[in-house]
Specification:
The chain is an alpha/beta fold. Helices cover 29% and strands 21% of the residues. The chain is built from ten helices and 16 strands. The structure holds NADP nicotinamide-adenine-dinucleotide phosphate (NAP). The site of NADP nicotinamide-adenine-dinucleotide phosphate has 28 residues, from helix 1, helix 3 and helix 4. This is Protein TOXD.
């Protein structure tokens, strides 16, 4: 197969603290790309000028040296966009470790496949790896609290938690109540009344939970989530930094913070732009293996266990991504993923 020597890609533009479409040399592989919150956050807080942007993608393989990933295969995956000059999903061609893609089942459209990888892996990292739960799942029983059920991570967390045998209580905006219930939530409350959330969760769970995932993980959401635990405490997964104030509310609750980027297995300097302070996360073969093993499970989760992609809205192509990033930054994207089609 022949492909051009240059292609278009989104890169971070320091001068405007924004993004631009640039023509760059083609790396080597390719289609649908999706906006994640981490994309605009990288532009705002982490990326340097010239870094390529975009994490989640799905497409058709155009070149491969791995016999398990052949030219013409439909695959999906994610890369650490916003960090490197040569890695970014918002481009006509995407290169990645062949062990870090999964084969998309025939019945699953690529636009849906593109919305799955990073959020579902975040759920594997939290509810399975750090909670020390088996997979295939045991029938856990009992309740789990998922803060932010209508987020992409939340919709996958609900589905995986149900497969693990939990009853799920969550919070979302009222216009997303039907959505989270259709993905499996047993109970849902409006997060805008924090006291009512805590009271309602304690009530439906008959005294509180021992496991929770806060998919929003701001200081106030962590504080609310911590208070939904029962008298014997438990483990609370957060996916932004731990709030010391929230943690102080419940010393009997173990707060665990994870960052999915560690699953690439490489040492990671995760310092914020301009802070000068190195935050070094060590390379981890264990995390690399979790990444590969979890991706291997995705085709069956979709085909046999009925795990569904979040609702999505198709947008334009590369030129339209900057506007989508702005909408996400303004908190205007609710209960859905924005998907862009790049290439044929
Ligand atoms: N640590 C990691 O490795 C990791 C991995 C993935 C994501 N993340 C982070 O996790 C967060 C969620 O990511 P995502 O992709 O799932 O987000 P998303 O789908 O873009 O989240 C949008 C949803 O968040 C809900 N929401 C926003 N603010 C809220 C609040 N204060 N309380 C309750 N719900 C709120 C909204 O719910 P309603 O519309 O119903 O109000 C909206 O539907 C992001 O901050 C992301 O950066 C971290």
């Amino acid at each position: 197969m022949t492909y051009p020597s240059t292609h278009k890609a989104i890169v971070v533009n320091d001068a405007e603290n924004g993004v631009v479409v640039k023509t760059l040399p083609v790396p080597k592989l390719n289609d649908s790309e999706v906006l994640n919150p981490t994309d605009w956050k990288h532009v705002e807080y982490f990326s340097a000028a010239g870094d390529r942007l975009g994490c989640d993608f799905a497409g058709v393989v155009e070149a491969s040296t791995d016999p398990d990933v052949k030219v013409g295969d439909r695959v999906a995956g994610w890369v650490h966009g916003g960090k490197y000059k040569d890695k970014g999903a918002f481009a006509e061609y995407v290169t990645t470790d062949s062990k870090h893609v999964w084969h998309v089942p025939d019945a699953l459209p690529l636009d849906q496949a593109a919305t799955i990888t990073a959020p579902i892996l975040t759920v594997f990292q939290t509810l399975i790896q750090t909670q020390g739960k088996p997979w295939p799942p045991a029938n856990e029983g009992g309740w789990i609290f998922i803060y932010g059920g209508s987020s992409a991570v939340g919709l996958f967390a609900i589905q995986i938690a149900k497969l693990q045998g939990y009853k799920v209580v969550t919070v979302a905006s009222p216009h997303n109540f039907d959505l989270v219930k259709s993905y499996g939530a047993d109970e849902v409350f409006d997060y805008r009344d924090p006291k009512a959330v805590v009271d309602n969760v304690l009530s439906v769970t008959s005294g509180g939970v021992s496991i929770a995932l806060d998919t929003i993980s701001l200081a106030d959401t962590q504080a609310i989530t911590a208070q939904t635990f029962g008298k014997s405490g438990g483990t609370l997964n957060v996916i932004l930094g731990i709030s010391p104030e929230a943690a102080a509310l419940r010393p009997d609750v173990k707060f665990v913070y994870t960052l999915l980027y560690t699953w690439f297995g490489k040492e990671l300097d995760y310092r914020g732009r301009g802070t000068g302070k190195a935050v070094i996360l060590p390379a981890s073969k264990t995390d690399y293996d979790w990444h590969v093993e979890s991706l291997r499970r995705l085709p069956d989760l979709v085909s046999k266990h009925g795990v569904r992609a979040p609702p999505l809205q198709m947008r334009g192509g590369l030129e339209d991504i900057a506007a989508g990033l702005e909408e996400m930054r303004a908190g205007k994207v609710s209960g859905q993923r924005l998907v862009y089609k790049i290439g044929a």
